Amino acid sequence: MMRFLCLLVVLACSVAQETPKPEKVALRQEIADLKVKAFELQQKIELLENQLKDVEEAEANRPVVSPALKTVAKARCAGHTKDGKRCTRNAEAGSRFCWQHKGHR
Predict the structure, then answer these.
(1) What is the reported pTM?
(2) SS3 content of the chain, % helix, strand, coil (to 5)
(3) Dihedral sign computed on CA atoms, order 54, 55, 56, 57
């Protein structure tokens, strides 16, 4: 019986030594969470930068009304799809957006 108790004490001590302290576990988890958030924020920044570039490009290529022809040159919509890609439709006359995106801005 005494031998069994000694084995239990030795086993408990070895398990206690291998178990990381709660502070370390909490800090490691917080670091991992922050790394995930940083990655997500970087992805969001890149998406927004691309959208801004597209909007600036659309503004630079704004439809021009020809006084001689009284028509509007076609321009690409400055809107974006749900997955962040630039809309491929033409903008409506006098607008930077197509029929679907004109209400979203």
Answers:
(1) 0.45
(2) 55, 10, 40
(3) positive
